[in-house]
Write a structure and sequence with these properties.
CATH superfamily of the largest domain: Periplasmic binding protein-like II
Mean pLDDT: 88
Structural class: alpha/beta
Helix content: 25-40%
CATH architecture of the largest domain: 3-Layer(aba) Sandwich
Number of helices: 13
Low-confidence stretches: 1-37
Largest sheet: 8 strands, mixed
Radius of gyration: 20 Å
Strand content: 15-25%
CATH topology of the largest domain: D-Maltodextrin-Binding Protein, domain 2
Number of strands: 11
């Protein structure tokens, strides 16, 4: 993880995006994120829903979009909350574009018929299999990010550190030293539990999970140190209140720098969940043409390359990935991706969350 520290000279934190876009006749993207040919050139304000507007990302995007001729208003919310909002508003949509949500969330939104298929101008530059599995695709990939168990490496050298989530509640030295969540409204939290529960898939079990699987979730909550509202995990690590917890890969270098802590990550033998952040066109928007232009601009290799430099993201766009920081590419390549049945997760995640909130998260 220390290899990533040199990346932290710039503000960091991946944008959970994925560009989509071009309907018939949609124009090419601008020459640069900060200037060049105007891609938007319209006074229409696009409403953009995202779960990835924090730590300067929303401000950067708004500024660079304006330079390219777009006026956007970003509405931020957690992944689950943004998903529910898009579904609730499907008959009278407020948003024009949604980005940052992963496949699990967009599958729910697609099933509710709240987004519509399209093909972005940069479709040939991404692996389409990372996005919508359907032939007519309603969301497209932009950023790949690992969901990790990070720990204070100054306190726990590699040979003494947890190797997997299950170590946290089965080994005494980690009990009450890890931060456990107090809410399940974020994509990161839900992906952590999806990564655990899918290991215990059992068709005869409660919600498709064996009794042993649910026992693991119970132990997670019983032996963890509850998160503190409005207090960053890294602040708690720096203060010595906890030593480890969940984190997306992109935030680590900036947080290490800001809180003056050193973090390494567990690498379970089964691998770690990867979130592939996507972008979609909201069905029913009355600004469709402008929304498609924006998606084409934002998902382009030029803009995503600048985004990768600014926020140390790992782009899905292959041309943009060539401009990503070598440390980020190396770290991403060092992680094994966990094989997860996303269809199974999508079908059950709502019920899993409800069960966890009612039975275990006290």
């Amino acid at each position: 993880m220390h290899k990533l520290k040199t990346v932290a000279a710039a503000a960091i934190s991946v944008l959970f995006l994925a560009g989509c876009g071009s309907g018939a006749g949609a124009p090419a993207a601008s020459e640069s994120a900060s200037g060049g040919t105007s891609a938007g050139s319209s006074s229409e304000t696009l409403i953009v829903y995202t779960n990835s507007n924090g730590e300067g990302r929303g401000e950067w995007l708004t500024k660079e979009a304006a330079a390219a001729g777009f006026t956007i208003e970003i509405v931020g919310a957690g992944g689950a909350d943004a998903t529910n909002k898009l579904i609730a508003e499907k008959n009278n949509p407020i948003a024009d574009v949604a980005f940052g949500l992963n496949n699990m969330y967009f599958e729910q939104i697609k099933a509710a018929d709240a987004i519509e298929p399209f093909t972005p101008s940069w479709s040939a530059e991404v692996d389409a299999e990372l996005g919508d599995p359907a032939e007519s695709k309603a969301y497209w990939p932009l950023v790949k990010q690992a969901i990790l168990l990070g720990y204070n490496s100054d306190k726990f050298p590699a040979d003494k550190a947890p190797r997997d989530w299950t170590d946290l509640w089965t080994k005494d030295e980690f009990k009450n030293r890890y931060e456990r969540v107090t809410g399940l409204g974020t994509a990161t939290a839900q992906l952590v539990f999806a990564g655990i529960l899918t290991r215990y898939k059992d068709d005869a079990g409660d919600l498709g999970v064996s009794d042993e699987g649910w026992r693991q979730i119970e132990q997670y909550f019983q032996n963890g140190n509850p998160a503190v509202a409005k207090t960053d995990l890294f602040a708690r690590i720096a203060a010595g209140d906890v030593d480890m917890g969940q984190m997306p890969s992109s935030i680590i270098p900036e947080r290490e720098k800001s809180f003056k802590v050193n973090v390494d990550v567990a690498k379970p033998s089964v691998g770690v969940p990867f979130a592939v952040e996507q972008v979609a066109l909201v069905k029913g928007t009355d600004k469709k043409d402008q929304a498609l232009k924006f998606i084409n601009w934002f998902g382009s290799a030029e803009v995503q390359g600048e985004w990768a430099q600014e926020f140390s993201s790992m782009p899905a766009n292959k041309a943009a990935a060539e401009k990503a920081k070598p440390e980020v590419v190396e770290f991403s390549n060092s992680l094994k991706q966990q094989e997860i049945d996303w269809k199974f997760v999508q079908e059950n995640i709502g019920a899993w969350v409800e069960k966890i909130e009612l039975e275990y998260m006290t």
